[in-house]
Amino acid sequence: MSEISVIMPSLNVRPYIEKCLGSVVSQSFKDLEIICVDAGSTDGTLEIINEFARKDSRIKVINSDIKSYGYQMNLGIRYAKGEYIGIVETDDFIDREMYQMLYNIIVQNDVDFVKGSYREFMEQNGRTIVSECKRTKIKQNYLGRKIYLEKEPEARLLDLNHIWSGIYSRAFLISNNIKFNETPGASFQDTSFSILVGMLSKTCIYADMADYFYRIDNPDSSVKSDSKINCIIDEFKYAENELNNRNIAYDYKVENMLKQIKVNIYKWNYSRLTESSAKEFSENIREEMIRLLNDRDFMTRIDGKSNIIDSVEIMLGEKEDVLAYSENAEKNTVDFIKRLMNKKRIMLVCAGDYADRLLFLQEYSNQDCDIEIVDNNSTKHGLMFHGHIVKSMSDIKEFYSDYSIIIANKYSADELYNQICGLVNGKIDVIVYDDLPQREDMIRIFNRI
């Protein structure tokens, strides 16, 4: 019996399947059962999978007669024999060490699940462009330790949807009868699965690692489909019915967290839809959202979180929606693109998420530009960041007269500017980018110019 069963659902992913499956079979952790569940691909995907299976006996190919991500996942879990369940979506890929690291953590700590974070990537002209920074909203004090969820119930739902960046005890899933919602297609079934796992687990670890690579340039991704208007409503209904049927009791903190999560995910869905589809979605959630606004206990407990109320009012048409990014964020992006095209010499201050977004864009643009990176965090000095060595802030003294200095930081721009002025003994011209779009939006802006 294998230690980890990796479920890989597929449907017409020929451009991506070889890279994806190749990253799984080449794992340093060899004790894998690889279960490929194909839902009737017609583009050559299944032929590529079968070719892999002929060369690697660990691969089992299952043909699904239903085109449903949830059904495919349940089918794979039903056939799985491993102690643990992993998931890899077949347009993504994983680092060679991912399953070895996750396995070590879950075995040493005996928890129901372990989840890491992930990094985004896209491909262009045969090049793979990968973000350096992991995507996570989990606070540092929750990372890397065993969490007893009955004692810390607020940790149950810290990381939803990214179900593929971890592994789960198969015994835990089976004993709790946790199954995916078997709605048609790929329709956000990871949402209800995440909620059920979080609510029914007793222990977990959020690992401080990011070895899963999530593709952001697949035009057929469900997040880009305008036809999936109400699927997210179905996911919450499914999760809530499952919890109600089990008589799961949870305190008001978790109940409030579930309501806030629902509002945030509903708002995400609303914002990604076209105007007509968003209007239809709004009508379908109107009664529920009005009840939420009239829930005095909930409103009292979220005192100070005006973004929740704003989101509800936007979805109800009572307040104008805001862009995914501000005009200033677009202005900063255009400014950076022009500097790249004009071969400006650039010094980026702070090797964090904003610098990562800028360098992601620079790699995508394929513009050759002289770039230096400095950071005031000494633990980063000497490390590689998008192919550049991170230097000390004191190195600004050597470069500042020949480079455009850009502070790429959302929260500490003023502090960094004052530090720079202190280093050069006077005020100098510095460009501040304290507002930037997400990577996908930056690429769209670049392609529009």
Automatic annotation (TrEMBL):
It comes from the Bacteria. InterPro entries: Glyco_trans_2-like, Nucleotide-diphossugar_trans. Keywords: Transferase. Pfam families: Glycos_transf_2 (PF00535). Gene3D superfamilies: Spore Coat Polysaccharide Biosynthesis Protein SpsA, Chain A. One of its GO terms (molecular function) is hexosyltransferase activity. Transmembrane segments: none annotated. Residues 5-133 form the Glycosyltransferase 2-like domain. The keyword Hydrolase does not apply. Signal peptide: none annotated. PANTHER family: GLYCOSYLTRANSFERASE, UDP-GLCNAC:BETAGAL BETA-1,3-N-ACETYLGLUCOSAMINYLTRANSFERASE-LIKE PROTEIN 1. This is Glycosyltransferase.
